[in-house]
Amino acid sequence: MLKQPNNPYNTPIHSQPVPLIRVSGSHREIGRQIGEATRQQVRHSIENAHQLLADAYQQLELTWDGATIQARKYLPFAQERFPQYVDEMLGISEGGGVTFEDIVVLNAMEAVTTDALHLTRCTSLAVNEQYTADGHILAAHNEDWVPEDEDDVYVVYARPDDEPPFLAMNYGGLLPNIGFNAYGIAQLIDSVYPNDSRIGIPRIVVGRAVLASRTPAEALRKAIIPHRAAGYNHVIAHESGEIYSVEVSARRFDILYAEEGYMVHTNHYLGVKMKEIESEPEELISSRVRYFRAQRLLRQSDIHTIKSLQAIQKDHVNFSNSICNHAVDQNDALDREKTINAMVFDLTAREMHIAWGNPCQNPYHTYHLED
Q1: Which of 36, 48, 151, 182 could form an S-S bond across to 371 if both were Cys, CB 3.0 to 4.6 Å?
Q2: Residue 172 · residue 105 · CB < 8 Å
């Protein structure tokens, strides 16, 4: 990762494309292959998480040992409903040469920190054939996270024995969940903040399950699986042009449909009944600014392309908390995430176009799902 003197925001520049790894077999084998291929990234992400908790101890009063104890409480719920993804986590730990407990903490981090991580800056959007120049179905997502994990990003092309092949962005020791599969199902995820969180199936495990869906209805059912710990917003797009936004909490959900052929979502609830349980909505102003900005930019054109969606992803209105988010203020350990990658999926062509780091400074590279 380089930094250029003419870069106005001192933004990291990546001279190489995002690493691509290919994995196949049983879920345990897939996890082990991911861990082996990304051992450095897995270990680095655990080190980063350790440091994050240490830096934020004044706010969270949570040590790594405490996080490990808390994360164990979520594991039985995941094991009961989705044992195959617990196997993937076990495989990642084996391949990465790290403890299973550390991988569980990573995948339950939002839960064990009671959402104190202020991850309020992801942006997702999708358009169907009514709004694209070539009639393709497009979906786009800016992934925002702590800057230290930017180097841990990779793309995984997986062929599970018992599930559809998929192409997904991932980083460190997490379960992959943002991507699309051979059945034409794409999933984009935005963190949301309900006040009814509980011990249950971790959100990342639910997201991994959605990525394995074969139909839109199956994807919706998995997003709202019973006994979930809390919820994300899942933007689910299908190659047919069907687009949904599933807003989820521990006990409620709302399904929004792209009646006009497009969808935008950030990190606050849009559904009326979900707004009732949103925790501290006044803390989500930047999410609302990005939502309206992305919606306006999407509506400005009746015909979109991969390039036009990439242009939206580079937008800097409301900088530094813009769609293209920059970690300018490093003072608050819990509130300093940035855009660590930006993706556009062409579901019709089965392509992922991904910029590693801020898309305003880094080029997009293309990866194909060949099935």
Answers
A1: 182
A2: no
Which parts of the chain have pLDDT scores under 70? 1-9, 115-120, 329-335, 371
Give how many domains the chain has, as a whole number: 1
Rg for the chain, CA atoms, rounded = 19
Q: For the chain, give the number of residues.
A: 371
28 falls within a domain = no
Which residue's entry shows tokens 């920190």? 113
Q: What is the pLDDT of residue 117?
A: 61
pLDDT tens-place string over residues 282-304: 989 999 999 999 999 999 999 99
pLDDT tens-digit readout, 304-328? 999 999 999 999 999 988 999 998 7
- Tell me, yes or no, whether 231 lies in a domain: yes
* Residue 324 near residue 123, CB atoms below 8 Å: no
pTM (2 decimals)? 0.96
Q: Return d(Cα 54, Cα 69) in angstroms, integer.
A: 16
286 lies in some domain: yes
Amino acid identity, residue 68? T
Residue 370 is predicted with a pLDDT of: 86
CATH code for the domain in which residue 278 is found: 3.60.60.10
Nearest alpha carbon to residue 219 among 199, 191, 248: 248
Query: Does residue 167 form part of some domain?
Result: yes
Instruction: Look at residues 217, 260, 252 and name the one whose alpha carbon lies nearest to residue 236.
Output: 217
Domain interval for residue 125: 119-368
